[in-house]
Structure formats: structure tokens, C-alpha cells
């Protein structure tokens, strides 16, 4: 009997297009056929408990071209086509035992490249945002005792300081490893999306609880009433509450810098050209913060996830801040300061206005970094 000829290899498996955006599917993920992009977006959204906002009518078209434009509608589409939250959670539970063992046995050593990354991010933060203990505080009596709709003197001062802070945030971003390798459009998109988040985080780390004050980079120290009157208005108490929630975390400058970098370099932002590249840049930052925070607090492994949760809180506060800017434009007598306006309304102009803040590629040998010191104990 003649031997039978070998059977041909089976044809490659072909999946239906991604149920969410109709792009090429890589397989079945969380219950439905989906592409790598939508799989990753859904996983991150569930794991980080993200809360998104639609700026249109909550009925945006989601396809492979538009999928990064509205995170709210993209997540809703994921649910509509059958993606399962439980599948994400079960996927995480499979690794729970290994994670627990890692927490117990990890000696918190890190490779040299991660040490270098942490040092660069920490330096970028410290050189663009002096610690509270470095500042010479000063106060003003202007509208310190009762709330008014707007104190124009305080508003002028605050808007001047906010503009300087935005420039420093741009400088911070450009010092982060890998940020300037992104497309110019993606750099602008990320800065525009995260600038308010980082601005709020920075001012909240300068909160002094026993005096209920916040201190700006020139040393100006305002109480809660003055912050309200300077332009924060109805979001003042929300901001102070967030500042109070940061205190138990006892974050140092390095952790604040890493959290700011994670907040900035985030592939979930709308309209990114290369979200996957942004995600790859974020991954070592997340790992660096996790190891640094656990090495600093060996008996408090829960501090790292608590820090990450603050990003969701910051996004909510920033949304309120953007809404506040709209009403503020009707209260101030003149136009909104250019850089603040362009940050909120016109990302294309952001690049031009921030050119002056671009840092040198390498500081000269003669330059010495500013003296730094740990933040004051809460």
C-alpha cells in the first residue's frame, strides 16, 4: 500500500474584523473578536477604573480612524459589542498568586537603566518645580476673609503664575526620556491633555494643612478664600479636598515627578497618531514608580495603586477646571492670557508658544543643579 501524501498545513485562522472599530482582529479578547488597540484600551480602562467624558452627544462614530477621538464612546462601544469586565478581572486573578509572592520576595533591586530613568525624571521635576521648603513664602491681605465672585488683583497674579507654570510643565515634558521622539502632533496632544492635571497636582503638593494654604512657585501663599477669589471659584473646595487626600501618601519629589510623567505620557488620550508608542514609553515609568514606591515603603505595597488612582481624580478635577475656564472668560474684563487660552482651546499654537521653554540637550559642566530638599512633613 502506497504511503499517503502528507496533508497540507491548515490555513491560517482568520478572525472577523474587530467588533469595536472594524480594524484587523488579532483574536478573541474579553469575549469578542478585537484588534490589539481596542483590547489594550478596554483592559486599561477597566484595570484603572477610568472615567471618560464625551464632548459631543455620546454617539460618536467609532472606527479605526476615529477610535482615539472619544474614549467615552469607544468604551461604550466595547460594552455594546460584548466585551466583559469580568474577563479582565479573571485575567488579573490568574496572576494574583505570583504577584503576592513577588511582593514578599522582591528585594526591590532595579536594573541600572531604571535607576537612570528615575534620576532623569526626578531631576526634570525638581528643576522645573522647586519644593515647598525652597520657597520664601509671602502672603497678601487681598480679599482674605470673605468669598467674592472674582478679585481682579488676585486673578492677574494667579494668571501670571499659571502661565509660568505651563511653560515649566512644557520644559518638564521635553526633559522626559523619549518624549521628544514622539511626533510633534502627539507631543502637543499629550501636553494639552495633561497640562491641567499636572498643574493641579503640583499646586496640591504645596498644600500646608495646618494653615489651609497653597503656595505658588514665587512663594505667594493664598488661603482657601483667596484661592476661590483668584479664579478657582466653585472648584476650590474640590482642589483642597484632593490636596488633603495626597497627604497620607507622603509622596516625595521623585514620586510626584514619576506620577506627573505617567499622567502626561498616556496612550489613552484622544487623537494620538501613535498611541501604542506612547504606551510603550509609559510602561517603564509605571514599573519605575512601582519599584521606587515599594522600596521606599517595604511594608506598604498598597501605596503604588493608590498613587495611580489619583490620576483618575486629577482628570475629574481638570474637567471641572476646563469648565471653570469657560465661565471665567465671562467674568474677567479682558481676554484670557494667551498661553492659558491656547492650552485649553488651540493645541496647534502650543508648540510655538512653548519654544522658549525648550531645555538644552545637555547642561554644561559648569552648571550646577539647584539645591533640593525633601518635602515638609505633613
Automatic annotation (TrEMBL):
Residues 15-90 form the Nuclear receptor domain. One of its GO terms (cellular component) is transcription regulator complex. Heterodimer; with a RXR molecule. Binds DNA preferentially as a RAR/RXR heterodimer. Its main location: cytoplasm. Transmembrane segments: none annotated. The keyword Zinc-finger applies. It is found in: Cytoplasm; Nucleus. GO terms for molecular function: nuclear glucocorticoid receptor binding; nuclear receptor activity; RNA polymerase II cis-regulatory region sequence-specific DNA binding; zinc ion binding. This is Retinoic acid receptor gamma. SMART domains: HOLI (SM00430), ZnF_C4 (SM00399). The gene is RARG. Belongs to the nuclear hormone receptor family. NR1 subfamily. InterPro entries: NHR-like_dom_sf, NR_DBD_RAR, NR_LBD_RAR, Nucl_hrmn_rcpt_lig-bd, Nuclear_hrmn_rcpt, Retinoic_acid_rcpt, Znf_hrmn_rcpt, Znf_NHR/GATA. Signal peptide: none annotated. GO terms for biological process: cellular response to corticotropin-releasing hormone stimulus; retinoic acid receptor signaling pathway. Receptor for retinoic acid. Retinoic acid receptors bind as heterodimers to their target response elements in response to their ligands, all-trans or 9-cis retinoic acid, and regulate gene expression in various biological processes. The RAR/RXR heterodimers bind to the retinoic acid response elements (RARE) composed of tandem 5'-AGGTCA-3' sites known as DR1-DR5. It comes from the Eukaryota. The keyword Zinc-finger applies. Residues 113-347 form the NR LBD domain. CDD domains: NR_DBD_RAR (cd06964), NR_LBD_RAR (cd06937). Keywords: DNA-binding, Metal-binding, Nucleus, Receptor, Transcription, Transcription regulation, Zinc, Zinc-finger. Pfam families: Hormone_recep, zf-C4.
Amino acid at each position: 500500500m502506497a504511503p499517503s501524501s502528507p496533508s497540507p498545513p491548515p490555513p491560517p485562522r482568520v478572525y472577523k474584523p474587530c467588533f469595536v472599530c472594524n480594524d484587523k482582529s488579532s483574536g478573541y479578547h474579553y469575549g469578542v473578536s478585537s484588534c490589539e488597540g481596542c483590547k489594550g484600551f478596554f483592559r486599561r480602562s477597566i484595570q484603572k477604573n477610568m472615567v471618560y467624558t464625551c464632548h459631543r452627544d455620546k454617539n460618536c462614530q467609532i472606527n479605526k480612524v476615529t477610535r482615539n477621538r472619544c474614549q467615552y464612546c469607544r468604551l461604550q462601544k466595547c460594552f455594546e459589542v460584548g466585551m466583559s469586565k469580568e474577563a479582565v478581572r479573571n485575567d488579573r486573578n490568574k496572576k494574583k498568586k505570583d504577584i503576592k509572592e513577588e511582593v514578599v520576595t522582591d528585594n526591590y533591586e532595579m536594573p541600572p537603566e531604571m535607576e537612570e530613568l528615575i534620576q532623569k525624571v526626578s531631576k526634570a521635576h525638581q528643576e522645573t518645580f522647586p519644593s515647598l521648603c525652597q520657597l520664601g513664602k509671602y502672603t497678601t491681605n487681598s480679599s482674605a476673609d470673605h468669598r467674592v465672585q472674582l478679585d481682579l488683583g488676585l486673578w492677574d497674579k494667579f494668571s501670571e503664575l499659571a502661565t509660568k507654570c505651563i511653560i515649566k510643565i512644557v520644559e518638564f515634558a521635553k526633559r522626559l526620556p523619549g518624549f521628544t521622539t514622539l511626533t510633534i502632533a502627539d507631543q502637543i496632544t499629550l501636553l494639552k491633555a495633561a497640562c491641567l492635571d499636572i498643574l493641579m497636582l503640583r499646586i496640591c503638593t504645596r498644600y500646608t494643612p495646618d494653615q489651609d494654604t497653597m503656595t505658588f512657585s514665587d512663594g505667594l501663599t493664598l488661603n482657601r478664600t483667596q484661592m476661590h477669589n483668584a479664579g478657582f471659584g466653585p472648584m476650590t473646595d474640590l482642589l483642597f479636598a484632593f490636596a488633603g487626600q495626597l497627604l497620607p501618601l507622603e509622596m516625595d519629589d521623585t514620586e510626584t515627578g514619576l506620577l506627573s510623567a505617567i499622567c502626561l505620557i498616556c496612550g489613552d488620550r484622544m487623537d494620538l497618531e501613535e498611541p501604542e508608542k506612547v504606551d510603550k514609553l509609559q510602561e517603564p515609568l509605571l514599573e519605575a514608580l512601582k519599584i521606587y514606591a515599594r522600596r521606599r515603603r517595604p511594608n506598604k505595597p498598597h501605596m503604588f495603586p493608590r498613587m495611580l488612582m489619583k490620576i483618575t481624580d486629577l482628570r475629574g478635577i481638570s474637567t471641572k477646571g476646563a469648565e471653570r475656564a469657560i465661565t471665567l472668560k465671562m467674568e474677567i474684563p479682558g481676554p484670557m492670557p494667551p498661553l492659558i487660552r491656547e492650552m485649553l482651546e488651540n493645541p496647534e499654537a502650543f508648540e510655538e508658544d512653548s519654544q522658549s521653554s525648550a531645555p538644552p540637550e545637555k547642561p554644561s559642566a559648569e552648571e550646577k543643579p539647584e539645591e533640593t530638599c525633601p518635602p515638609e512633613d505633613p
